[in-house]
Amino acid sequence: MTKILIYKKEGCHLCDEAEQALERLKKEKKFFLEKIMLEENTDMFERFGNKVPVIFINDQMVFEYKLDENAFLKKLAELS
Known about the structure:
The protein is of the alpha+beta class. It has helices spanning 13-29, 42-48, 69-79; strands spanning 3-8, 32-37, 54-57, 60-64. It has a domain at 26-80. It contains three helices and four strands, in the order βαβαββα. The termini are close together.
């Protein structure tokens, strides 16, 4: 199963929007969604800082800041 990983921060409205979109898309596209708070991962916090949300598909970074649902679906098909 395809793994989607989202790094997010507390109080980030872009993170909340991306997470809601991914939850909605997960119902029709059937992928595993893992959510990690950036503040809880020192290495990733140093790497990404305020560039959230950061979204990976199968360990490949595909989005920073904003999730484009159509582009996400294309990337999902490519990388699955």
